[in-house]
Amino acid sequence: MSPIAQTEENRVQVPLAERSYEIRIRRGLLREVGRCLSDLGFSGKVAVVTDRSLAKLYEPIVTKSLKTSGFEPHTIVVRAGERAKTLRWVSVILDELARARFERGSVLLALGGGVIGDLAGFAAAVFVRGIPFIQIPTTLVAQVDSSVGGKTGVNHPVGKNLIGAFHQPCLVLIDPETLNTLPRREWKAGLAEVIKYGMIADAELFAYLERQMGALLKMEEGPVAHIIARSCQIKASVVAEDERESDRRRILNYGHTVGHALEALGKYRSLIHGEAVAIGMVQEADLSCHVGFCSKEVVARQGELVRQAGLPHALPPVTFSKLWGAMQHDKKVAQGRPYCVMPEQIGRVVIAPLERSEFKRWFVNRS
Ligand SMILES: NC(=O)c1ccc[n+]([C@@H]2O[C@H](COP(=O)([O-])OP(=O)(O)OC[C@H]3O[C@@H](n4cnc5c(N)ncnc54)[C@H](O)[C@@H]3O)[C@@H](O)[C@H]2O)c1
Ligand SMILES: [Zn+2]
């Protein structure tokens, strides 16, 4: 696999018939947001939804670009972090949109990490039954995963992402320069989602990560551009095959059956999403080996890469019943049984329903 060029713009298409859109990836793109919107035919009012940290860092760059292109930006700032993903904050955004007299043709920009993308995307999905929105992801998790695919929503105290809608963006603008200010912990958390793509769909990407993890931890431009573009290609192709997650798209939930349960058990405070996914992948691969889907070598190779990325891998102290109970609240449950994405090889997974007895046997005997 030849490295994806870093100087020119990378463009990835998400082919979804009349909902098709483009992902554009280039350093400095943030300063051209206004022009990109004009190219799509938008004009007039633009809502910029962002959080308190990004309001200082990048919102001024985006609004300046919008004004230069003749737009009228209206910024809406929410609290930072997972705890903003609530109906209360959706309501704050909707109130602002209504007060500023946004209409069906008005556009909304989600400037931030996955939390902002999910929250603002959901507000865009329900305001006057749907207004167009554009994703401008600023974390690695958001650039490689959450900004693509149209899943939007918020958490409920009972479970993560329980309230939501499918609403595709009409454009995704990725400026890898924004990653320079990302806290180290958030950067590493994003690498977990990239490792996930290697595990579920691309053995070459997995091997690339094994070779380049040192450079990635130093955030070298070439490898960073490569993993973003490759991850977007994989996500776009999976979403194009199964937009509403009836089948193939579920492979993207690898590591998330256990991961989401751990996030909920920690009340979204102790582990950030990518860390929970890293632990989830390590545990789900171990489970897969226990059930007989993959070899110990697959578990060991993945475990080593997770460790190299500086990500957590061990289950935090948790009882079987708490963990199993939390897994029941996930959306990935059918007739009381959660399903689990099990690796067979590096780059290939199967989706299997999970029996309580089997999961308990693994939990009690795990290494
Ligand atoms: N919709 C999907 O398909 C999908 C996929 C994966 C994850 N998600 C969701 O995404 C969320 C996690 O997103 P996340 O990991 O991006 O976390 P996040 O959105 O909470 O951002 C993490 C923190 O980094 C800060 N930040 C963001 N960009 C920054 C930058 N460039 N410089 C400095 N600070 C910056 C934010 O203010 C925040 O405090 C979870 O809620 C998860 O469920 C959704
Ligand atoms: Zn995820």
SSE diagram, text form:
Elements lengths: L9 E5 L6 E5 L7 H7 L5 E7 H6 L1 H10 L3 E7 L8 H13 L7 E6 L1 H13 L6 E5 L2 H7 L4 E6 L2 E8 L4 E4 L9 H18 L1 H15 L3 H21 L14 H10 L7 H19 L4 H13 L11 H9 L4 E2 L2 E9 L2 E6 L2 H10 L2
Parallel strand pairs: 2-9, 3-4, 3-5, 5-6, 6-9
Antiparallel strand pairs: 1-2, 7-8, 10-11, 11-12
The structure holds nicotinamide-adenine-dinucleotide and zinc ion (ZN).
The site of zinc ion has 5 residues, from helix 11.
Detailed description of the structure:
This protein has 367 residues and is an alpha/beta fold. The protein has 2 domains: 10-181, Rossmann fold, CATH 3.40.50.1970; 184-365, Dehydroquinate synthase-like - alpha domain (Dehydroquinate synthase-like, alpha domain, Up-down Bundle), CATH 1.20.1090.10. Helices cover 47% and strands 19% of the residues. The chain contains 14 helices and 12 strands. The protein has helices spanning 33-39, 52-57, 59-68, 87-99, 114-126, 140-146, 184-201, 203-217, 221-241, 256-265, 273-291, 296-308, 320-328, 356-365, and strands spanning 10-14, 21-25, 45-51, 72-78, 107-112, 133-137, 151-156, 159-166, 171-174, 333-334, 337-345, 348-353. It has a 7-stranded mixed sheet with strand order 1-2-9-6-5-3-4, sandwiched between helices. A 3-stranded antiparallel sheet has the order 10-11-12. A two-stranded antiparallel ribbon has the order 7-8. A hairpin with a 2-residue loop joins strand 10 (333-334) and strand 11 (337-345). The chain starts with 9 loop residues before the first strand and ends with a helix. The relative contact order is 0.11. The mean pLDDT is 93. The protein binds nicotinamide-adenine-dinucleotide and zinc ion (ZN).
